[in-house]
Amino acid sequence: MDNAAQIGLLGAAGAAGQSIAHALGAAGRRYRVIGRGRAALQASFGHDPLAEIVAWNPDDPASVASAAAGLQTAVYLVGVPYHQFEKHPVLMQKTLDGLRAAGVQRLILIGTVYPYGRPRSRPVTESHPREPHTFKGKMRLAQENLVIDAHGRDGLETLVLRLPDFYGPGVERSFLHGVFEGAALGKRAQMIGPIDVPHEFVFMPDVGPVVERLSRTPEAFGRVLHLAGAGTITQREIAERAYALAQREPRLMVAGKTMLRVLGLFNPMLRELVEMHYLMTDPVVLDDTALTTLIGPVIKTSYEAGIAQSFAAAHRAGRQATQRADAKQPA
Questions:
Q1: Is residue 216 part of a domain?
Q2: pLDDT on residue 118
Q3: Are the C-beta atoms of residues 112 and 81 closer than 8 Å to each other?
Q4: Which residues form the NAD-dependent epimerase/dehydratase domain (predicted)?
Q5: Which of 4, 297, 308, 326 has its CA 20 to 30 A from that of 154?
Q6: Which CATH number do you get for residue 35?
Q7: What span, in angstroms and rounded, lies between the C-alpha atoms of 196 and 178?
Q8: How many domains does the chain have?
């Protein structure tokens, strides 16, 4: 087996990067994790002998090319602050320039439902019009278009894999993280409502095996594909199940669009959520028939099991935080 990594995760430090890295490791494949901070990558991946750690500056195509040197496939997971979505297409173009310079043959973009705008059908297939009415949707659309247009040029093949909202153990950037934390700690969970609308969430550990499989499926490239969750569920149902695991009654503080506007006066992150609130009232539910037709059945963790694992992780984190705090107390 070639000792060099053939696949690299660009922007690997987040939850999706860790899921994909775990799947690559489980398959015995060497991989390269690429991110701005070497220390964070070392903390997450330094234990895995299959992982190669490389720091980069995605604002610099030369740095991109250096970080991607020798790779056959790159998986793009780069995030930007929620109030700086204009950076998405800019960074994507610089990354494409760097990947071409490095001679990378394949690129997988892990995308979102934002480019669709308001759903016109349920579920949504890959042929649904992409007509975003929000700034964030337009920036994600521009990013996607760069990737789609790059396919077949300069020896590069591309694939866009769109995901719905996600959740999972320790996934802090999930809308549901506060629910698991609240249940585990016996606190009130802050949620964005309405919470009785059927919604779709993908369990983040399920994403990695799909991406690993797609990375070695040549016929997947030149396409856009969906990975759907394990059906739909309401946020209230998730909260009730999580608090039941803690043997507690749910304690929920639900903020609707009006409350988000008010809270946004003091919290920039919440202010940025206002334009995306339509996804709470009119969620995009994905159809991933094209994906499963291509690669076969996909393992999807049930909501019951996913909630249990996410709650357990929050409970462990809470217990560890308490132990650290106790250790700092004077004897």
A1: yes
A2: 97
A3: no
A4: 9-217
A5: 4
A6: 3.40.50.720
A7: 17
A8: 1
The C-alpha R_g of the chain, in whole angstroms, comes to: 20
Full domain range(s) for residue 294? 7-171+199-231+284-300
3-state helix/strand/coil string of 200-247: EEEEHHHHHHHHHHHHCCHHHCCEEEECCCCCEECHHHHHHHHHHHCC
Residue 218: asked if its preceding bond is cis (omega within 30°), the reply is no
String of b and e for 124-161 (b: at least 16 CB within 10 Å)?
bebebebebebebbbbbbbbbebbeebbeeeebbbbbb
Judge whether 268 lies within some domain: no
Residues 6 or more apart in contact with residue 176 via CB below 8 angstroms: 167, 201, 235, 238, 310
Q: Residues, the chain, total?
A: 331
Q: Can you give the pLDDT at residue 270?
A: 80
CA distance 240 to 233: 12
Closest CA to 95 of 81, 80, 84: 80
For 32-94, give the DSSP string: EEEES-HHHHHHHHTT-TTEEEEE--TT-HHHHHHHHTT-SEEEE-----TT-TTHHHHHHHH
Rounded CA gap, 265 and 245, in Å?
35
Supply the pLDDT for residue 80.
Answer: 92
Has residue 133 been placed in a domain? yes
Is the pTM higher than 0.85? The answer reads yes
247: in domain:
no
Of 19, 173, 179, the C-alpha closest to 110 is 19
Q: How far apart are CA 79 and CA 306, in angstroms?
A: 24
Mean pLDDT, consecutive 10-residue stretches, the chain (331 aa), reads 81 94 97 95 95 96 97 96 94 97 97 97 97 97 98 96 96 92 95 95 98 98 98 97 96 90 83 91 97 97 98 92 69 56
